[in-house]
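User: I'm preparing a small set of examples for a lab meeting where we compare how different chains pack in three dimensions. I only have the primary sequence for this one, and I'd like the structure in token form so I can line it up with the others. Please keep the answer compact; I'll paste it straight into my notes.
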Amino acid sequence: MFSLFIRRGLCACLCAGTCALACTTALSSSADAQSRPSATPVSPTALAVSPSTDMQETNVSTSTEQLTVNGVRRKLSTGPDTANLFRHSLGYSAYSGGGVSSLPVLNGMADERVATFVDGMRIPSACPNHMNPALSYIDPDAVSSAVAIAGITSVSQGGDSTGGTLEVNRKDPIFSSSSKLLVTGHVRGDYRSNGGGSGASGSITTANDWLSLRYTGSYSHASDYHTGGNERRVLSTSYLSFNHAVTLGVKKDNHLLAITAGQQDIPYEGFPNQYMDMTNNRSTFVNGKYKGDFNWGTLEARGFWQRVDHAMNMLADKGGHTATTGMPMNTDTRTAGYALKATIPLGRKHTLGLGSSFDHNGLNDWWPPLQGSMMMGPNTFHNINQGHRDRLGHYIEWKAQWLPRFSTELGLRNDLVMMNTGPVSPYSWHGMMSMADAMAAQRFNAASRGRTDTNFDVTALARWTPLDSLTLEGGYARKSRAPSLYERYAWGQGAMSTTMIGWFGDGNGYVGNLHLTSEIANTLSTTLTWHDPVNHAWEVKVQPYYTYTHNYINVVRIGTLPNGLSKLQFANHNARSYGINSSGFVKLWNTTAFGMGELKANLNWVRGQDLVTHSGLYHQMPANGSISLHETYENWTGRVEVTLVKAKSTVDWLRNEPRTPGYALLGLGGSYRWRVLTLDASIENLLNQKYYLPLGGLSLGDYRASGVLSPLAGLGRSFNLSLTATF
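Assistant: Understood. Below is the structure token output for the 727-residue chain.
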């Protein structure tokens, strides 16, 4: 019956010339990536959809339609923000930002507490408002695999983090099965009614049996979106983005070398919960990867370089900018590094992993003077001058399969983080309006600014399968994170200069602290998986966890801003967080007449508390989940999904965090595949429900226009259309 409804609905959509969001999005969980069934378990990067070297040419183009999220294959995403790939992962949520720049959260730990890798590159935000997070540098259409691991992560999956790891990888090079030339690729176009969003992307590969060359490109644009209910326009939510990349691959026997070079250009992107907008962000990068199999084991090597030129000011919704209005802010950063990983089998039951990595991040952040302004002139404001943050890490990891049903993993890691910055200067050393900043700059320049943090991580995991239908995984992790450049070196004390610092979307002003020390998070977590071992017709996962963080980097209130919000300084406190994540699915039917139907659900809950101020930790997502009905019938697929979010009542009173009411959203989607074409259609927020985003912060774009300070409202009803063709 459900199949008939979906098919008839899609026929109506197709007759109207529509196309849609793929609805085969599988329910996924971070626990999938944490499974370690043997002494040589599959690594997260091995979950990528990458054609084998002997793949037939007829299968290559089909593979380009797929990606994996936590090991589950799904259709290519039609959304513009790569962070949305993880939206069904256990413990995952996201801070709202620009249209392609939301900030990831795992188990209540956000942004820089999450180790985020894009094709092996650890990319820090090059902005005092974190408008260019790592996941914003890759279009979802270019992603081959995406893995989210909340809480306990292996030491080989990155240090200098306390919340977990996100890994996003591009497609590996593909090769022809013979010396005959192979040409394959795909193109896609999409449209989103709310905000008039549109996008296009595609790739083309030419290859023989040892050499491969691929080009990928994408474009995405949207105007301001409208809320549900009264369909009010949400200011500062427009954006425009372009991505280009070229990948050269060389294969010989058991060795693969891939070099990718690319550029991203975002001419503008509005940020509704910031005082500023992004007026340009250009990134240029080169990334090399080598993987080889030897008699003694496997060696992986990566090297990368990236330059980012970033500019902020005010777009038209916030009043615009000219030579004499607005507030120009510029950032220039260079990132370079390497990563080496060796995997060595020690007999049939043990595996040894060894690794070394280095990341350099050099940052300049300066604010040019505004012509004729007494407040923003006459000199340049140097926020961070020749700052650098270098991280050198090494690890050793031992995996053992003691019994057929029992395995363990033990890892040790050391990260040395070295930071420094040069002398700074305010807009003016003598003006009354710059007095607070001038005095702060003098104190900052007189202080010793070099810092070195020596961090140690430990991970201990065990996996036991007492029954074919039951698996228990659990462990302990000690994870460390050194402060960021802005947390340590944001020195301004004036009302205006402090409000320009902060990636929380809360409207408050932030001041750095030279005396910060590294966070140390101690996490206990276990995952229970109960499933059908024969037909895999049902599965339930439950994952409770507890984290105690020593020297958690939070804030203390040091003043009040003219608009009634707060001036805050970063400070080390102790904190704790705990919660439970769960997911499950059951196959309801699998017949010739009606295809296959599945019911999927997930539920996440987290609670965090600062043990010094006794306030809630900032931006903790209230209890939330989804329940969806999926059907696949021949080339048709369908989805009906309900998203449920509880009212947010536990807040961080130090940051004036707003409370938000609970809500339920209904979505509908379907797709049809015909030969090389895939037509998709979906409706988000079908009932046009008005709601506020629990992690959206304050709607500062609307506040500037109306004078009313309120939480950021979510997206109203949107009809989403997409057409993909492969060749």
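A couple of notes for your slides: The first strand starts at residue 66 and ends at 69. The radius of gyration is 25 Å.

User: Perfect, thanks.
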